[in-house]
Amino acid sequence: MRLLRSAASMSGITMVSRVLGLVREQVRAHYLGTSLASDAFGIAFQIPNLLRRLVAEGAMSAGFIPVLSQERQEGGDEQAFGFALRFLNLSLLALTVLTAVGVVGAGVLVSAFTALSSRPITPEAQELTTSLTRWMFPYIALVSWAAVMQGILNTWRIFWVSAFTSVLLNVAIIGAAVAFAAHMDQAAYAFAIGVLIGGVLQLAFQVPYVFRLGFRWRPDFHPGPGVRKALWLLVPTLFGAGVYQVNVLVSQAIAWGLGDGAVSSLQYSSRLLELTLGVFAVALSTVVLPSLAADAAAGAVDKVQATVLYALRLTCFICLPMTAALMLLGTETASLLFQRGAYSSLSSSMTGYALVFHMVGLTHIALGRVFVPVFYAFKDTKTPVAIGFAAMLLNIGLCYALAPTLSHGGIALANTGSALLQTLLLTWLMQKHTGPISDPQTTRSIALSVLATLVMVAVLVSMKQALNLGDRHGFAQLALPYLGTVAAATAAYLATAQLGGHPELSEVLGLVRRRLRR
What is the pLDDT of residues 290-320, one digit of tens each? Predict the structure, then answer.
């Protein structure tokens, strides 16, 4: 219940961030649509963003938080802050150099990216992408330093501050686009300005909260044993995260060669996937890691196993109905949310087509995000690397195999297939740390989630046909019948779960009731 309360609290902020991320994509769709400029911005933002996930998220989850938790447990707050200071100072030096190299070498990065595509990219597209990459590359340093702040706050079980920084990023991009896009010859640069402003805000917002905990900065650049331990843990994770980034890079590069709009439609589809993941899975995986790390450090394997099973049940309860709903309403969802300005009905069809293949993987992608922290908690960073490498090989092979026949939908399906393989292997190999990951309660819970989802699908299909949703386009035509269909399907899911005595529904409803009484 403590995890559920923390995840629910995080979910509220995360959901606001995901909704604003959706608004950000709506603004992008309005000004850029699925044009060459939209693809260029998508690729250019992807490059520093992927490095952010590699350096910031990889470092925090695999090296920084587990060691920081151990330092705090063994030596108290003062020893933990000393380690955090030295880790931060090392990152200040390394990331400043990395950013400078990235700005100067943006052209080389984009050329290498272009070489991955199976078809030629126009010089105009390459030039615009290179310029935008150079503008946005400093974002990686800003957000990586912000990630150190996040690691400190999360270790002290303060989650909402860091979660709120993604809200600030989206607000910055939306604000810059609305303020500058109409007044610039190339509207994509307005979005690049917003990315830089957002990076500054993400770092600056967290600093006062970290200082309130007692952290103080000073120029101490001696690494110390704690930093060396964190870096040792980080090395295999960098390879593992790098494997994942190769997956994304190859996917985007192949899509770039499929013609204008392929990259953008995949990214709009991915935004909807991330929105659904952000409802609960991302928040759950965030709050799980410190608890797992503390229990693993204390040798409480039974508590780790209980946490994993609980996360598994909650994830299936949330993600299974979302998977079915968005697979059946993919094009209608894209049309409702994005179809305005430069974004046409053809753009909606392209996005909806990709969304069907993306959503097949929602549940096991969410589970993968919950399972990987289990390995990190036990300081096992090599196993996720090996699994990620196998998934990468499958993804690259499927991308090149499926794209010629399924176009950008084949790329989305390749991503889903590789994520499925990764989750299956994580589940199997995780048991060497936790023991068997199954019990009667979990089996019953998942079975009830599947049954309720099937009932929901029947209601949704009936409503979709009765209201002719497939013949409606845009917000004005779709809003009311779409919302009515979703409301009826949701009611069917919840009613079936309630009749079956679904344990996770009971706990979620209990949490809501307690919140309403406050």
Answer: 666 666 666 777 777 887 888 888 888 888 9
Closest by alpha carbon to 404, among 414, 389, 415?
Answer: 414
Distance CA 413, CA 441 (A): 32
| Average confidence score pLDDT of the chain | 81
The contacts found for 470-473 with CB under 8 angstroms, 24 or more apart, are 470/331, 470/332, 472/332, 472/335, 473/335, 473/339, 473/345, 473/348
Cβ neighbours, 10 Å, residue 301: 14
Strands of 157-264 (E only): list them.
none
95's CB contacts (< 8 A; 6+ apart) are 55, 140, 141, 144, 145
- Residue 54 to residue 48: CA distance in whole angstroms: 10
pLDDT in the model for residue 49 = 72
Q: What is the rounded CA–CA span in Å between residue 347 and residue 330? A: 12
Nearest Cα residue to 388 out of 18, 45, 62, 42: 62
How far is Cα 83 from Cα 148, in angstroms, rounded to an integer? 11
Instruction: Report which of 289, 500, 253 is spatially closest to residue 396, judged by C-alpha positions.
Output: 253
CA proximity to 24, closest of 279, 476, 330, 338: 338
Give the pLDDT band (50/70/90) at residue 52.
Answer: low
What letter does residue 380 receive in the DSSP assignment?
Answer: -
How many domains does the chain fold into? 1
Q: Give the three-class secondary structure for 450.
A: helix
In this prediction the pTM is 0.70
Dig out the tokens for 235 from the structure: 């090395």
Instruction: Answer yes or no: are the C-beta atoms of 436 and 454 closer than 8 Å.
Output: no
Provide CB contacts within 8 A for 180, sequence distance 6+.
189, 190, 193
SS3 395: helix
Question: Residue 460 belongs to what domain range?
Answer: 2-517
Q: State the average pLDDT over residues 367-384.
A: 79
In the chain, the amino acid numbered 135 is W
Q: Which of residues 245 and 183 earns the better pLDDT score? A: 183
Distance CA 198, CA 164 (A): 12
